[in-house]
Give the backbone structure.
Amino acid sequence: MKPRSNIERRFVDYANILPPIWDEISEYAYSNHFAAEAYYWQHRGNNQEIWCQCCGHREPCDSWLVMSAEDYVCPACGKVCKVKQLRKDSSTRATSCYYLSVFDIFDGIQVVRTFEVFRSNHKSGPTDYSMSEIYQNWILENGREIITSRPFSRGWNFMHWDYTAGYGIQTHNARSGGYFSYGDLFDVSDNWIFPKIKLAKYLRSNGIDARKVKSLYKRSGCSVTDALSKWMQTPYYETLWKIGQRDIFWHFMKSDCHRKLPKYADSIKIALRHGYTIPDLRMWLDYIDDLIELGLDTRSPHYLCPEDLERVHGRMTARVRRIRDRKAAEKQLQEIEAYEPKYQKRIAPYIGLCFRISDIEITCLPTVQSVYAEGKAMSHCIFQREYYKSINSLLMTAHRISTGERLETLEISLTSFTILQSRGRNNTMSPQHDTIIRLMNANMKHIRNISKHSMAI
C-alpha cells in the first residue's frame, strides 16, 4: 500500500535506509530456535546414512542409532540432535525458517524490526543460514503505530515475501471466518524476540523498561506493539502497574474499552485509596456507568465502595431502566402527537363504523393514542411496527359491550377489503375469534362503500 500522508512517506523512507543488523543478532538467530535434528535413512543397497541439519555433515551409520532411540552427537559441530527416520532417500533440500523481532531505535523513534531467518540444507555442502528483514512496527511518541512492510502474498497453504521490493504501508490484517482464517501477520507477539531490547527515550520516560516489554510480550491475547501504543496514549497504565493492580491493568489492556480508562481512573483511585477490594471488576465498571447515567457522585466512597456490589448494582440498573423507559415513553408521546393529525384526517370517514353481534362490538381505533393503548393492553406490536402509518390499512378493535374487555385487534386492507390479521392478547386467537371474523366479513361491504365514496370526493 502506498503512503498517503507525509508522516507515512517519512517512515517508508526510514524503512528503506535502516542500517544492517549487527553480528550479535545474526549469531543469536542462527544458533537459537532451530530444532537440533539429524535425518537418518536407508539406501537401496542397505547402506544407512545420517545427515546433521545444524551443519550439513553427512556420514554412514548403523541402524542401532535409530533403534536405540539415542540422540546423535554430530562430530562436526558438536550439536546433540534428535534423530528423525526417513522412509526413503533424503530430498535434495531441507529448509526451515522462523520470524525474529528486534526492538531497536532509529532517529530516536522506537521500531520493532522483524526478520525471516532461514536454515537451508543441500544434499552436499554445509548448512546455509540467512535472514531477510520483512517489516517494521514503529511506535511513535503519541502512541500511534505505523507498519512498514515488503510486499507479500499468502493463502491457507503458502506465504511469500518479495525480498527485493521496497517497503510500503500496511495495517494489522487478522481475518476470521469464511473459508480461510488468518492470524495477524504483523503481530510480533507470535515471533521470537531478540533478548537485548533497546527502548526509545520517550518509552523509558513513561515507565516502560525491558522487563515490562517481556511481560507484555508473554501475555496471551495482547499484542505487544498494541500494548505499547495503549500505554503511551494513556499514562494511567503506568500507575496501575506501579501499584500492583495487574487485574485492572490487563482488563483494559486486553479489552476494546481501552479508551474508557481515563473515564474510570479517578473512581478507581478513590476506591483503592479507601482500601476497597473490587470483587467483580466488570460488574463494578457497569455499576460506575449506572452512577454516571444517574448523575450520582462517582468520587464518593459511599457509592464507590459498596459492601454488596451485586445488590446495589441491581438496584442502580433498575433505576436506569425506569429512566430509560420514561424517556422512551416521552419519545413515543412525541411521535403520537406528530402523526396524530395525519391519522385522524385519513381515518375520519370510518369513525362512525360500529358492527355488533350479541355482546361483541367492532369499532375503529380513532386516534394514534388509541392505537398505542391497544398495543400496550394487548401486548402485540401494532404500535411499535407503526401499522397506523399504513395508508392502505384500517385498524379496528373488537371488545365486549358489557365489560369493555378487549378481545382482538383487526387490520383491514383498504385495497382488497379483506381481513389481513386479527390478533388477540399476545398475538393469540381469542375464544370469540370465529365470531369476530364472521361479523367483520358480513359488514365488509360498508367499509368498501365508504372507501369508494371518499375516493370519489
Remarks:
- The chain has 15 helices and 18 strands.
